[in-house]
Write the structure tokens for this entry.
Amino acid sequence: MAIRPRAIIGASIAALASVLVLSACGGGSGGGSTTAAGGGGSLTVYSGREQEYMDPVFAAYEKKTGTDLQVRYGDSADLALLISEEGDRSPADVFLAQSPISQSYLDQQKMLSPLPKAVLARVPDNLRAADGEWIGIAGRQRVLIYNTDLVKPADLPKSVLELTGAKYRDKVAVAPSNASFQDFVAAMDQLEGRETTDQWLKGMAANGAKTYAKNSAIAEAVARGEIPMGLVNHYYVLEIKEQDPSAPVAAYRFPGTDPGSLFLVATASVPKATPDKAQADDLVGFLVSDAGQKLIIAGEGEYPTATGVKAPDRAPLLTTGDYPAYDLTGNTDLKGVAEQIRESGLAQ
Amino acid sequence: MNWRAAGATALAVALTVPFALPFAYLLVRNAGDLSGLWGAVSDNHLVGPLLRSLVLGASVALAAAVLGTAAAWLVARTDLRARRTWALLLCLPLVIPSFVGAVALIAAFAPGGLVEQVLGIGFLPEVSGFGGAFVVLTLLTYPYVFLLVMARLRTLSPSLEESARMLGRRPLQVFTTVVLPQARAAVAAGALLVFLYVISDFGAVQLLRYDTLTRAIYSDRLLDPTTSIALSLVLGVIAVAVVAMERRSSRVGLRDQARAGAVLHVPLGAWRLPAYLFLVLLIGFALVAPIAVLAFWAIRGLANGSADTASVVADPGLIVQPLLSTAGISVVTALVAIAIVLPIAYRSVRRPGRLGEVLAGTVVGGFALPGLVTALAFVFFTLATPGPLGALYQTLPLLVLAYVVHHGALALGAAQSAVAGIPARLDDAARIMGRNRIRRFIGVEVPLMLPGLAAGAGLVLLSTAKELPATLLLAPPGFSTLAIKVWQAAELAAYEEAAIFALVLVAISAVLTWFLVVRPALRSWTTPVSGTLPSGTESPVSGSHPEVTAP
């Protein structure tokens, strides 16, 4: 019998070598591995937004400015925790998050630095933090997704508040662990008062609302007919249709300024720890420029946030400018939202 | 002699320090807010999730122990044909990330799902809740038990079994009266790993809508970090308590008698057909079924094509880099993990006592902490330490170390079992013959431990290949693995893409498992040192090694 340990040592050396080669090649699609780019310098981006949709945006910026971008992709909440843990030694120059609450978390720890006025002025007041610490770079419409075989349009509620009624018993799916639902609760606190929101959450739980892990799970369950309707962001409906054009789903936007029709934003910020604030601001500026916005909304079918940029054809839902006005900034009581959801019994 | 023992102890203690970091991190984070800690722990909304975590963990551990042990015995100790192929297939479910298993189960069996659409079968059982989580997690975790028990059974002395057979016992009786008692420690170690994995799992339980403690940990991690950190500490405390209980119950029986001659292969006889049927069903549900769902998506995606040039459907070349990264980093992690835990295993097995148990308990208990906690602990301690360690931040060596710490439990159980399997007589024989320590280790002990170490390496390899949270937070920017690609695509609900990456993940894991695990663990055993074993040599230190008691 040949001595196996020798083979194992050989394998380990080969494996170690391959990892070293890999790390030497470094880079990867987001980064581009030019070590010393022209005049542009380099920036590290922590992106809670998906690689598939952000890579083209970052590539365009690298090409335009000669800056070398190193990108860490991950979950928005995890990356916010990472930046918070890294503190003033964080390598992150720019942080992109899927929702305002990840930014609020860092904002409340005084870890973000305000963006320049010229950048902030690109978007309407209600799509950025009042203190200027973060800016919305893509918009999502909260909608009610429903199964067209199971629900007649005439039976759809006029307001999200009606979903606690007997008519919708055991029929509605929610994703209380999901950031966009948490955003929605925080906004509803502001719009309707905490009392009403508490009652609504408890009412949903009492009415047999079914909880799912996330928006995509809700959209898939509605498409299968497992449950008639659910609260999600609009582009999950587009995704379902893309996978299976015959899927019996449609999106419904509550009329007027109902809290159920929030317009949520994905966000960008510049952590205080960055040694290159000007360059980081420049990248955020690019994200809300005409060119940047067009690239961002080309991906998932989100809406632009910058004034004057046209919404994509695949997302025609928004014809009205009536959005409920809320302010998910540094004052949001994050812990309060967690307690509200926990105590409603909706999570169980 | 004494300085050598002290040196071994010092080495084992030093090597255990990194494994204590996640616990230390949780303590540091909680220390600032003790009232918050108390508030979170005493919140009665969390009693339900806590109980559900424990019930799910215990029942999955029990089911996985039964399935894994039965499969291990069939592969290791019977005259089953193509045992290595069976062994490989039985290991592979471990590499399927639990969220992928859950998504596949839901897509297949939920009302209106693939089984109903494609096969036209209605009236399917409810897949969500406890039942779904129990089934998915059992099918994905029984390999923990399977690998450890298989390695153990390969190194058992056949003499008892032989006697039992000669006395006319049937295979099943031989198994329950002779084999099982000797493999008890390995079964318990595997079941413990399953329990710890299940109480820390998030992907499957959340998708299957079974509300456990991890759901609270994850959904509150940003909004209410105090609660989240406190609940992670609760998981850690449960883990340490369960580990301590397990150690107490299975301390006896670690050492076995000297092995002699070839492994005994029990003829299955009339049990052949049921045995094959059992293995086919197990592999069918645990591996083939999820792969079939993935293949359905992949084929549908490839048939539809993709206009998106960033999609792997349009550009298969995008697979190469994550594939190489996954293979390289998991092999390196598996080998480093074995090297790091081996001294701890020696210390805890050779000199049983409180210190050894604390060391082993620290390594094993960390497996129950969410990967996110381990990752953040490494961020915290790396950046807080002045000097060269800080320079390692977001480099591959640190990532490997974090993987090793998170998965150390997997390597340690196997390594302890392997060290315990070295017959004391043999060791002493070599010592008497004047071999020095290092030559004895390489020439005598490593070959003997190989099946066990290979099993441990396999567990680490497969678990690292599917790891997500530590990779996302600690890898150098731009470093991507297949598991990350699966997760990213699944987040976009781009299932054809997720499926392609997941299938590649299973395929590369199969290749690595074959060479690194199955072949070393299941070579037809001819004891390489049997010629050097002087018969009748009594161990001068045998009093300190608990001998196995014959049943």
Q: What stands out?
A: Chain A touches chain B through 78 residues (CB under 8 Å).
